[in-house]
Amino acid sequence: MTSPASACVMPAGRLAALVDGLDWERIGADLDEAGHALTGPLLTPSECSGLSALYEHDQPFRSRVVMERHGFGKGEYKYFADPLPEAVANLRALLYRRLAPVANRWATAMALDHRYPADHGEFLDRCHAAGQRRPTPLLLKYRPGDYNCLHQDLYGETVFPLQMAVLLSVPGTDFSGGEFVLTEQRPRMQSRATVVPLSQGMGVVFAVDQRPVQGIRGTYRVRHRHGVSLLRSGERFMLGIIFHDAA
């Protein structure tokens, strides 16, 4: 019998060509300037539907979280289990390889000692050695009245400073409201919020916690959080790709 995860097929060659073909120079510049960057289309409508359909099954996942029970907001999400669905694992590794240079540039600018290897498997070995062995990619599901409070996905001491979210539903058709929201907190200033315009299959890369900003007196750190505004109608699914594992 075909498992739900294996039924969600994304050809590895297509994914690799698509990720390599993204405008990484522009993405890197946007990340440096604003702490987030849109990728353009990553997944086809059928791939988005296939991933969303996994949510109704238990097999691909290690746990389910109901946000309201923990004060996270309203709605729910499920963490994928190891081994990750092949499509999710491939996308995670391909994106990491392209984002590692940005992460290292930020680490240098913020005078941090650690550096990130080019290979995602090597980085995961570092997570596991630190006791962070639980996979963190997840599917999120929202219904009317649901929302996600502003937060950070840290999960342990070993953190990759960037992550990605991919919208799997169609705004205005599958749901209304439910905008993806990012905030940044600069020293001695009030927080600034940005609503990110996403379409189905589009990804946004964003800072997990801090990013460097060049000021008049040198480099300083800006702290970021992210969340989802109130869903007014319909049903909204999103794929979250976090590159470090959890303790």
UniProtKB/TrEMBL annotation:
Membership in a protein family? Belongs to the iron/ascorbate-dependent oxidoreductase family.
- The protein's name is Fe2OG dioxygenase domain-containing protein
UniProt keyword Manganese present:
no
Alphabetically sorted, this entry's keywords are: Iron, Metal-binding, Oxidoreductase
- The highest taxon in the source lineage is Bacteria
Question: Could you tell me which Pfam families the record lists for this protein?
Answer: Oxygenase-NA
Residues annotated as domain Fe2OG dioxygenase: 133-246
Q: Which InterPro entries match?
A: DUF2086 (IPR018655), Oxoglu/Fe-dep_dioxygenase_dom (IPR005123)
Q: Tell whether Magnesium is among the UniProt keywords.
A: no
